[in-house]
Amino acid sequence: MVINIFIILLLLPLAVSADQDAFIGVNIGTALSDMPNPTQVVVLLKSQQIRHVRLYDADPAMLLALSGSGIQVTVTVPNQQLLAIAQSNATAANWVSRNILPHITTTNITAISVGNEVLTTTPNTASILVSALKYIHSALIAASLDSQIKVSTVHSSSIILDSFPPSQAFFNRTWEPVMVSLLEFLQSTDSYLMLNVYPYSDYIQSNGAIPLDYALFRPLTPEKEAIDSNTLLHYTNVFDAVVDAAYFAMLYLNYTNIPIVVTESGWPSKGDSNEPDATLDNANTYNSNLIKHVLNTTGTPKHPGVATSTYIYELYNEDLKPGSVSEKNWGLFDSNGKPVYVLHLIDSGSVLANDTTDETYCVAKKDADKKMLQAALDWACGPGKVNCSVMLQGEPCYEPDTVVAHATYAFDSYYHRMAMADGTCNFNGVATISTTNPSRDGCTFPGSGGSNGSFINGTSVAPSTNSTTSVGFSVLDSVSFVRVFGACLWTMAFL
Prior knowledge:
Number of helices: 15
Protein name: glucan endo-1,3-beta-D-glucosidase
Family: Belongs to the glycosyl hydrolase 17 family.
Oligomer: single chain
Keywords: Cell membrane, Disulfide bond, Glycoprotein, Glycosidase, GPI-anchor, Hydrolase, Lipoprotein, Membrane, Plant defense, Signal
Strand content: 5-15%
Subcellular location: Cell membrane
GO molecular function: glucan endo-1,3-beta-D-glucosidase activity
Strand order of the largest sheet: 1-2-3-4-5-8-11-12
Distance between the termini: 23 Å
């Protein structure tokens, strides 16, 4: 009976709701050797219809440049200032007087983050963190700004332990007294929990237990979905699982009505040799899918339909950041305002307006099994109704005469024939989406706007489940075995 009651409590909807529509914002870091001036930054933000930004300080020049733009701004009290602010209400009032009051009439400051990942980066100041929040909030009350500006603090998701299944999650017990005091403050001030969520890091640290598709929001077959054994909720991506883990961690401390805003999330577009999944294609896929996931208000399995507004990390690549190559390559743009990659955002309609040209291609994975590739190529040129005559000897797309090159042309042709619908660039796992145009001299791919006469007249059908490899067994059968076996291993890893 006790177990049944516990499960019922887990399944009850939490009293969480969004007080505004879901939004996508961006973080603006400044560790660039050629940092654009604030006016140039705001021009880029406006051109991309970005309406929410988060600053890592309260830079007066940037706040001045944002004046009159209507862009909603979250500013930050740097960690090194926390100790002074937490010791004195007067110091907090002075910070608000210097950094907020001169700008508030023309710049739309809507939130203050008091510190950034304090518990994990400067744990020696953890004990005074909530005092600093309270003093800043008191200063806002004195200035009659408490209803306009929320006060919170950003956390790394690493403070959540045992995060899968989400229903078992709890905050690191070391920080439990701080979290209880913080959650009480957030609840009493109608604020929200700020959380940094990085599926890329979770994927890397899992050592293969988390599939790449699960981290990238790619469509999953039912057997690949992760299931919370307590709630029976199905998770199709890491992002939702981490967000729900935070909700359950709050529930564990008896807080059920504090919403979450994800203050950082993204994927690096370049990495060291030991980071093979830090690529342009994966960064494009993650951020494109993240934006669509947030803006369509899907919510999470625990809170369907509840917005999880998110700030993408980040606006610019920061070449001066210390550490690995990936640390320098999280940006959507370079310092000249040129997109690092072209986001796939058709019909998003509200953010990153100049990056919606839909220039995407379906290409063969270079490391895919050649027999699987050949089987998929055979299907595309047969039941898939791709006109593969352009790949015959002497024709425009014959060279290079490799199964990877020929499969890429056939896959891309089918993908665009099917209007780039979800699931049409998979071919039993041997194909992937790319933003790099694979066209070459004389061979123009459909996604680039040209044509080599790619399709045979007739109605296309779904990818064949009966294509066979040269060793005489069904491609579907072999892939199903791999998926089921992998799902079993994955489930065991999570439990």
